[in-house]
């Protein structure tokens, strides 16, 4: 194993954990909304708006750090092109979640839209993380 590659992937793995924690917290908050618990729409909004910069920063760290190194080392065999596309798709879904806050908050369908979007966002992120941690990070540890 290459220690330099481990040093690169370690912080990214930690960011994955932080993002997953934020998504899980958001899902819990949303599930508490209809139950009349302490969670408010303001808390959900704050969690959503906290998630955005986390995603952006993480994607930038991967693309400008690890992915560029993999592309330089592997050339056209690098698996990063599809992952950058996934970053864009995940961030579009995040923006959809922000739009739901603006468009539907006073609508009866607000909760349904919110749950659907955050569940899709979590699914997309989990699938993406799995690819990175099982394939891309392993390649980085072997090749870089």
Describe this structure in words.
The protein is mostly helical. It has one domain: Four Helix Bundle (Hemerythrin (Met), subunit A) (Up-down Bundle), CATH 1.20.120. Helices cover 85% and strands 0% of the residues. It contains 4 helices and no strands. The chain is elongated. The protein starts with a helix and ends with a helix. The mean pLDDT is 88.
List keywords for this structure.
single chain; 144 residues; mainly alpha; Four Helix Bundle (Hemerythrin (Met), subunit A); elongated
In short:
The protein is mainly alpha-helical. It has one domain: Four Helix Bundle (Hemerythrin (Met), subunit A). It contains 4 helices and no strands.
Question: Layout of helices and strands, plus pairs?
Answer:
Elements (H helix, E strand, L loop, with lengths): L2 H30 L8 H34 L5 H25 L5 H34 L1
Number of helices: 4
Kindly name the structural category: mainly alpha
> Tell me, what is the CATH class?
Mainly Alpha
Main beta-sheet strand count, sense and barrel state? none
Q: Name the average pLDDT.
A: 88
Write down how many β-strands occur, each being a DSSP E stretch of 2 or more residues: 0
For the termini, the CA-CA separation is 9 Å
CATH architecture: Up-down Bundle
């Amino acid at each position: 194993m290459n220690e330099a590659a481990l040093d690169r992937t370690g912080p990214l793995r930690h960011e994955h954990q932080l993002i997953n924690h934020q998504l899980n917290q958001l899902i819990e908050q949303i599930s508490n909304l209809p139950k009349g618990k302490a969670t408010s729409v303001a808390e959900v909004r704050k969690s959503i708006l906290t998630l955005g910069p986390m995603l952006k920063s993480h994607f930038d760290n991967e693309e400008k750090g690890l992915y560029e190194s993999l592309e330089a080392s592997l050339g056209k065999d690098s698996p990063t092109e599809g992952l950058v596309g996934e970053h864009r798709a995940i961030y579009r879904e995040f923006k959809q979640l922000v739009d739901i806050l603006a468009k539907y908050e006073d609508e009866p369908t607000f909760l349904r839209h919110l749950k659907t979007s955050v569940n899709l966002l979590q699914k997309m992120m989990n699938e993406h993380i799995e690819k990175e941690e099982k394939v891309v990070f392993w390649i980085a540890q072997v090749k870089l």
